[in-house]
Design a protein that fits this description.
The longest helix is centred in the C-terminal third of the chain and has 14 residues, at 149-162. The strands form 4 sheets. Strands 3, 5, 6, 9, 10, 11, 12 and 13 form an 8-stranded antiparallel sheet that branches. This protein has a two-stranded antiparallel sheet with strand order 1-2. The chain is mainly β. It is globular and about 55 Å long. It folds into 2 domains: 1-30, no CATH class; 32-162, Sandwich (Jelly Rolls), CATH 2.60.120.10. The chain has 1 helix and 14 strands.
Length: 163
């Protein structure tokens, strides 16, 4: 069978691919854009860079989330769970009814379906993680109330006692 090569343009990037066969696609950094975390669902300075989106064969998306010192998400749940891979600094995470924990570069946080939780940077270090979040019918998160300063302070104390 003959292979034909074609040049594909993907959001300003180029890739060579064999037509008529399964092919890999390279999604260059920045292709899907980034945004500042909305104050309705984040406290403090947060930047989210979308790395890739769900598609016909991948039911999850990925994003790099960078938290300034003391920044955090609101309480939330995921209809198909979430996996976080810590890439920089310290990330605090707390699931309702469990003790808060501090995680560091290379640690993986696995959050099952429907578990109410939050995550963000510690009070002494900025932090970042890659969020891998599965979707059901295009939905990957249910945002709840913001984490209060008191809840965050108590979670930090609890997490530091675990170290």
């Amino acid at each position: 069978m003959k292979k034909f090569l074609c040049l594909l343009m993907l959001s300003g990037t180029f890739a060579l691919a064999s037509v008529g066969e399964n092919m890999q696609i390279i999604e260059k950094a920045g292709t899907h854009g980034s945004f500042k975390g909305d104050a309705k669902i984040f406290s403090g300075e947060v930047k989210v860079e979308m790395m890739f989106k769900a598609n016909e064969w991948r039911d999850f998306s990925g994003g790099l989330v960078e938290f300034s010192k003391g920044a955090r998400s609101a309480w939330h749940t995921h209809p198909k769970g979430q996996t976080l891979i810590v890439t920089e600094g310290e990330i605090i995470t707390k699931a309702e009814g469990q003790k808060a924990l501090i995680t560091k570069k290379g640690d993986v946080i696995s959050c099952p379906v429907g578990v109410k939780h939050f995550h963000g940077a510690s009070n002494t270090s900025a932090g970042a993680h890659i969020a891998l979040t599965s979707e059901i019918n295009g939905k990957n998160v249910e945002w709840l109330e913001l984490v209060s300063d008191e809840e965050y302070k108590n979670a930090l104390k609890e997490a530091r006692e675990q170290e």
